[in-house]
Design brief:
The complex is a heterodimer of chains A (353) and B (682). Chain A is built from 7 helices and 20 strands. Chain A has 353 residues and is α+β, with helices and mostly antiparallel strands. Chain A folds into 2 domains: 232 residues, Thrombin, subunit H (Beta Barrel), CATH 2.40.10.120; 83 residues, Roll (Pdz3 Domain), CATH 2.30.42.10. Chain B has 682 residues and is α+β, with helices and mostly antiparallel strands. Chain B has 5 domains: 40 residues, no CATH class; 194 residues, Thrombin, subunit H, CATH 2.40.10; 78 residues, Pdz3 Domain; 89 residues, Pdz3 Domain, CATH 2.30.42; 206 residues, Rossmann fold, CATH 3.40.50.1820. Chain B contains 14 helices and 36 strands. An 8-stranded mixed sheet of chain B has the order 29-30-32-31-33-34-35-36, sandwiched between helices. In chain B, strands 1-4-5-8-7-6 form a 6-stranded antiparallel beta barrel. Chain B has a 6-stranded antiparallel beta barrel with strand order 9-10-11-14-13-12. The longest helix of chain B is centred in the first third of the chain and has 27 residues. The N and C termini of chain B lie far apart (71 Å). Classes of the chains: A alpha+beta (353), B alpha+beta (682). Chains A and B meet through helix 2, strand 8 and strand 17 of A and helix 1, helix 2, strand 1, strand 3 and strand 7 of B.
């Protein structure tokens, strides 16, 4: 499950150092000014912590990253296997060490809030109310203890990049095995490395933007993606967990099962036999007098969209039809003689219902 | 102290900077913002020309790779609907291609043609008045400039972006701009923009070492990405728009010495019936100029040849002796595959220590109906010369014979009963079939072996053996072996015959298990006796995930083979990959990736999913395929065998009667072992 090594160019210590030193004004020789003004990186680093917990077996790291959200030692990280033990160890950038216990978690958001114990002095923290949303193209910094590069009293590593897109990972069903369906930031830096989950994404001037997520592979392209969950999507739940008002959401797996209410033949559409992985959804017969016949569908039409959803195979078409409910309207786009043709079919109540 | 200096350094720098501190700080922050704004504006300028591409149907795998089903990107290059994209986006050979413009309109697209050199695909949609983006002036593209990669994959309304710089120009033999922006399937086919929003190039995966549709994809998001310069994209599109595919141009010659650091381009071999051959290029000619540009190193030649297409004309200036001549050569897309000649003998294998220098190659076996048999060569004859050159080792003889073609005349000098004779013969092609019977080669029982009845005494060093024996047992144990390589978590197991004798060369069978099953017990059971009988060592690396092999694990397997070669005496001519079912994909991949290491591939019940490289006399490889007659894959495995034969790889193929998709039975694996035993045939 680890990323291919090639996609982790930040591993090279020389470059890492350069990023740390030149945090502001990477390309225009403004180190001097950056050092003078309160350096945003220096403000962020003390708020990001290294976590050590369960794991250490094959492919499961025993380390991770988190960030402080209150002076009393409330800390946010991703909900993962690290937290499978009673206490985890949290180490601050200056080497201070705390034990922490899980206060609450919301698996739907991949979120966990921990409480550091025996906090006697106020800790540096992010003010969640100041977290903000940013558009694609904004330059960002990623802070995390990826690959456990930072040890002891060392601060975590910093990467820079831009927000490639703000999008939903679950826009297409089945593309990601990921419980969260809100917006995420896709980043063009390799932020999502082993141990990086729970780190933060900030703007170049250190404003909190997102929490770096777990390593995730896009099932559609088989590539690893780099993303962060917007803090604006998390802060309400974080607040509820801290105040004790939180009720975890129910597992939605039942809702996710396709009811398979309709198949193509319910509309009078006969499909080509589904023999290979991606049999294109060709119509091979139309039942006379059916909804499909009335809508003008023809033999050899290729169904390419259903209600705006791209249909890449017979299987996908049947899958999408399964979700329909009586009273819906199905908008189909078919390819016929090199042209795209739209038709609409009513979804009628099935006889046996 | 160091930290103090680091802090001090900026202050010292500051002292010499003009302008006050406060102004500088404001500039710094606003410069960041201005740059960000410039990125967004650059993308906004090209936005309307960046299209989303979706596909329907097609293959779910190409080679080892699951093909993408996600949307990909293309760029409008003519108002009347020509769209350029990366060929990688269509490797699944989709049934239908759909293009969605930035304004949301959707069109059915047809594939016009593909450029197999620059890996571009040209599409056409029935639309008019499409916005064509401005192309950057190629002279203005410089290393260090901002480079913004854009795709339309995550979101229809806003392109996804990655920002980097131009890292290099004229990469991949003069074909591509290199950038450190993150290039991946999310923006292949999209534009690489400069800060003014002009298109510098089209993003494609490329690799300097490999070619083909999936080459370079392993570098996604690595900071090494490539774009074809826009001027060349447009030129290629102009040639493609009538529907003609473009291919890299081939000459049909190889240069002496390998590696890109090799110096003077001296011609080593000219392929028969290749353009170079027809133009009269001869071996040992020295290339002094290409297209009028002087060349002194092999890399120069490749830089000029790299950007050329089949059909282009290339001018070579050659030096032959004292003469200088110019030839014009029209490049082609395909060369007649190389086919090696065959004598029809197996050489006697030699001990690696102890014996005096060989005088020639003793014949172990003469194949029926082979040129050697027809000319009257016999077992125990000692071959001492070939075509007038003296030969003393099998490697030398193979080298000479495999560089000749079937049907060519050759002469063989040999000793029989103390007399030297010469005979003439006509070489044949290496036969595909495996003889029904082949006596195994006897190896004297090794010193580390358990006492065997009447093992012939090994050579002189035997006396030194006892003190060294323990250590040898540690390093090179016999029987069932297991372990890991230092610094690697992969496990492996294997079997070394108890009769192992380090003074003699052993074949090495590398078993690559299929997905979800190491088949350890079954393979051990079948191969133990075969190894004992045929002088083979079995080694079975295990994939990290039982679910199957990852292409990145190729390094582990080759490291393991090299480690075996260090620990044991391995015959380089008989290092063989063996696999069944899905493991076969990995076997093919490894074989063609490590052509010097693996001399044979024996795969049961798995077709080859990617086109193999051309047969090459420098890398003699032989294949063995089999498949059950009840197996649904039979036709495809058969097609693989005939495809390999077309490329002139010697390829045995066996249909296993009454077998479905299952590992071959004992009789059939015995044939595989027999085939391995004849891989050193000449």
């Amino acid at each position: 499950m680890s990323q291919p090594l090639l996609s982790c160019p930040m591993l090279r210590p020389g470059r890492l150092l350069a990023v740390l030193l030149l945090t502001s004004g990477l390309l225009h020789g403004a180190q001097a000014q950056a050092q003078q003004r309160q350096n945003p990186v220096q403000e962020v680093l003390p708020k990001v912590v290294k976590i050590f917990g369960a794991g250490g077996i094959r492919n499961l790291q025993s380390y991770g990253t988190g960030f402080l959200v209150s002076p009393e030692g409330h800390m946010v990280t991703v909900w993962n296997h690290l937290l499978d033990q009673d206490r985890v160890t949290v180490i601050l950038d200056d080497g201070r060490r705390y034990e922490a216990r899980v206060l609450g978690a919301e698996p739907q958001l991949d979120l966990a809030v921990l409480q550091l114990e025996d906090v006697k002095v106020a800790l540096p923290y992010f003010d969640l109310s100041k977290a903000e949303d940013i558009p694609a193209g904004t330059r960002v910094l990623g802070f995390s203890n990826m690959f456990k590069v930072a040890t002891g009293d060392e601060p975590v590593s910093v990467l820079h990049g831009v927000v490639a897109a703000r999008t939903s990972l679950n826009a297409r069903r089945g593309a990601f095995e990921f419980p969260y369906d809100g917006p995420v930031y896709i980043v063009d830096a390799i932020t999502n490395n082993p141990g990086a989950a729970g780190g933060v994404l900030t703007t170049r001037d250190g404003r909190l933007v997102g929490m770096i997520g777990k390593e995730l592979r896009n099932a559609e392209t088989s590539t690893w993606i780099n993303y962060a969950l917007p803090v604006t999507q998390l802060r309400e739940t974080i607040g509820q967990i801290i105040s004790g008002d939180f009720r975890p959401s129910r597992n939605r797996t039942e809702d996710d099962t396709n009811p398979r209410r309709y198949t193509a033949i319910n509309f009078g559409i006969g499909l080509i036999p589904d023999v290979i992985q991606r049999t294109p959804a060709y119509v091979i017969s139309i039942v006379e007098g059916s909804a499909a016949a009335r809508a003008g569908l023809k033999r050899e039409d290729l169904v390419v969209f259903l209600n705006g959803q791209l249909i890449q195979s017979c299987r996908m078409l049947q899958e999408e039809l399964g979700w329909l409910e009586a009273g819906d309207t199905v908008k189909l786009v078919v390819r016929r003689d090199g042209q795209l043709i739209s038709v609409e079919l009513p979804v009628e109540r099935l006889a046996e219902e | 102290m160091r930290e103090f200096l680091l802090r001090l350094l900026p202050l010292i720098c500051l002292a010499v900077l003009p302008g006050s501190l406060t102004v500088a700080v404001a500039d710094d922050a606003s410069l960041d913002q201005l740059e960000e704004q410039a990125f967004r504006e650059a993308v906004a300028l090209a936005d309307a020309s960046i299209v989303r591409i979706e596909t329907v149907g097609g293959l779910d795998r190409v080679g080892q790779m699951l093909t993408s089903t996600g949307p990909t990107t293309g760029v409008v290059i003519s108002p009347d609907g020509l769209i350029i994209s990366s060929a990688f986006n269509f490797i699944s050979q989709p049934t239908s291609i759909l293009v969605q413009l930035a304004d949301g309109r959707r069109f059915n697209a047809t594939r016009v043609a593909t450029d197999h050199s620059r890996m571009l695909t040209l599409l056409k949609i029935e639309a008019t008045e499409l916005p064509v983006p401005a192309a950057a002036d190629p002279k203005e593209v410089k290393v260090g400039q901002w480079a913004i990669a854009a795709g339309r994959t995550y979101d229809l309304t806003v392109p996804n972006v990655s920002v980097g710089i131009v890292s290099a120009l004229n990469r991949i033999w003069g074909k591509a701009i290199q950038t450190d922006a993150k290039i991946s399937p999310f923006n292949y086919g999209g534009p690489l923009l400069n800060i003014d929003g002009k298109v510098m190039g089209i993003l494609v995966p490329l690799s300097p070492q490999k070619s083909g549709e999936t080459a370079g994809v392993e570098w996604y998001d690595s900071g090494i990405g490539f774009a074809i310069p826009m001027q060349e994209v447009l030129a290629a599109a102009e040639r493609m728009k009538e529907g003609n595919d473009l291919h890299p141009g081939l000459l049909g010659l190889t240069l002496q010495g390998s590696g890109l650091l090799a110096g003077t381009p001296v011609i080593d071999r000219v392929r028969v019936e290749s353009p170079a051959d027809r133009a009269g290029v001869k071996e040992k000619d020295v290339i002094v100029a290409v297209d009028g540009q002087p060349v002194t190193r092999q890399a120069h030649v490749r830089h000029i040849l790299g950007p050329k297409y089949a059909g282009d004309v290339l001018q070579l200036t050659l030096k032959r002796g004292d003469e200088e001549l110019k030839v014009d050569i029209t490049l082609v897309d395909k060369l007649t595959p190389w086919e090696s000649g065959f004598l029809g003998i197996l050489p006697v294998r030699r001990a690696v220590v102890g014996s005096e220098a060989p005088r020639g190659i003793e014949v172990r076996h003469v194949f029926d109906d082979s040129p050697a048999a027809k000319a009257g060569l016999k077992t125990r004859d000692l071959i001492t010369g070939f075509n007038g050159s003296p030969v003393t080792t099998a490697a030398e003889l193979v080298n000479l014979v495999s560089r000749m073609r079937p049907e060519e005349e050759a002469s063989v000098e040999y000793e029989r009963d103390g007399k030297t004779e010469t005979l003439q013969l006509t070489l044949a092609a290496v036969p595909d079939d495996v003889p029904a019977d082949l006596r195994s080669f006897p190896i004297p029982v090794g010193k580390s072996a358990k006492p065997a009845a009447d093992a012939p005494a090994a050579d002189a060093p035997e006396k030194d053996a006892p003190p060294a024996a323990d250590k040898e047992n540690d390093e090179a144990g016999t029987g069932r072996i297991t372990g890991t390589l230092p610094g690697d978590t992969h496990r492996y197991w294997g079997y070394v015959p108890e009769s192992y004798n380090p003074d003699w060369p052993w074949g090495l069978v590398v078993w690559l298990h299929p997905e979800n099953d190491t088949m350890e017990a079954a393979i051990f059971k079948q191969w133990k006796s075969l190894c004992d009988r045929r002088g083979l060592i079995l080694i079975a690396p295990q994939s990290e995930e039982i679910s199957g092999w990852n292409l990145n694990e190729a390094g582990f397997v080759t490291d393991l083979v090299r480690s075996m070669q260090e620990r044991y005496t391995i015959d380089p001519a008989r290092v063989v990959l063996h696999s069944f079912s899905s493991g076969g994909n990995f076997a093919y991949h490894l074989a063609f990736k490590e052509r010097e290491l693996f001399r044979g591939v024996a795969v049961a019940a798995q077709p080859l999913l990617t086109p193999p490289p051309e047969n090459d006399p420098d890398f003699r490889q032989q294949m063995y395929l089999c498949c059950g007659d009840q197996d649904l894959l039979l036709k495809r495995v058969e097609a693989t065998a005939s495809g390999l034969r077309k490329l002139k790889y010697p390829c045995a193929f066996r249909t296993l009667t009454g077998r479905s998709h299952e590992y071959p039975a004992a009789d059939d694996t015995a044939e595989i072992a027999r085939w391995i035993d004849l891989l050193d045939r000449i």
